[in-house]
Amino acid sequence: MNDQAIGQFDGLSISSGFDSGNIIVDGRKGASFDLAIARDHQSDFYQWFHFRLNGAKGVPVTLRIGNAGGSAYPDGWKDYRACASHDRQDWYRVPTSYANGTLTIAFTPEADSVWIAYFAPYSIERHHDLVARIAAAPGVIHERLGATLDGQDLDLLTIGEGPKQIWFYARQHPGESMAEWWIEGALERLTDPHDPVAVDLRRRATFHIVPNMNPDGSRRGHLRTNAVGVNLNREWHEPTLERSPEVWHVLRRMDATGVDFAMDVHGDEAIPHVFIAGFEGIPTWTEAQGQAYHLFRDTLARRTPDFQTRHGYPTAGKGKANLSMSTNQLANRFGCVATTLEMPFKDNNDLPDPRRGWSPERSKRLGAECLGALHEVLDQLPASRSGATS
């Protein structure tokens, strides 16, 4: 567990000694708290926060995170609003501002206990509940691929019997909790016996799904790294059991199954849109790969107004792709279509929600919708190279 700090003053207190908790209490005056975000263990990354405010019902509180300006992505604080919940089920946004390196959350709680987080958390316990529930569905195989550095299980769910090999994996960066909400939505649709798209997908493809690639970082309250400060999405060229067993185990299984389509699910701190990034710039890029990637992207944009193609990351030049990143490595290694899906920590400016911003519910719906887009383009995926090496 990351460093925990508890500030207790009169009836008010702030605590973070729980799953994915992260905050340091530096001081308090009246109903105003001075706070800081703890760095990922053995790393300089930080941005995720998650803490509980107690005893403040009806009290106007001011929570100042004084080290926000030094965080991993300070541009992410512009127009950002923190998430809060009284029951840890319904997450809503609260007034938040950023100036001079300090993030200020100011509101009046409606209950004595309120949880505040960078995004709605997806707990390790919910992860276990999800794995158990989906594993109990007909036709689902659950496996433990291996252990993380903290000794947690790395879970794989396999669904379907078709020849196309599809891989979904989420939370390489543990603070991007919307990614596992997306996985939950995709899994619920994929295992629905009454959904004709799901039934047909299971007939035509086999899905390999890793709901949480980084349970150590998730439980520790990290933004971006695993138990020893390693960014897993920079390990795919040469993972090791000592630094990145999570990637080592998953890539080993991918080599065994082959990959026809892969989606690496993430959240983006700064860009208030949903978008995907591809694999432009890989050494083995083919026209067929590129066409199939754009077909999937454009199909998803047609299917849901939550997704768009105007805003996103710049593309790498020819031969300039970073093969340590999973999407580039898999597209280059297997000749498949690989994608990185990004959802916002903020609101989705294409379809804003003043109360919730981008939310767990929207993330789940997007997961289900991505299956619909994949169903449309599945036969257009190019033949991949099984078990190839880069």
Q: How would you characterize the overall build of this protein?
A:
This protein has 390 residues and is α+β, with helices and mostly antiparallel strands. It has two domains: 7-117, Immunoglobulin-like (Sandwich), CATH 2.60.40; 124-380, Zn peptidases (Aminopeptidase), CATH 3.40.630. The protein is built from eight helices and 18 strands. The protein has helices spanning 124-135, 178-190, 196-204, 215-220, 245-257, 287-303, 326-334, 360-377; strands at 7-9, 12-15, 24-29, 32-36, 50-54, 61-65, 82-85, 92-94, 96-99, 102-107, 113-117, 140-147, 153-160, 164-170, 205-210, 261-268, 275-277, 337-344. Strands 12-13-15-14-16-18-17 form a seven-stranded mixed beta sheet, with helices on both faces. It has a six-stranded antiparallel beta sheet with strand order 1-2-5-11-7-8, with no helix packed on it. A five-stranded mixed beta sheet has the order 3-4-6-10-9, with no helix packed on it.
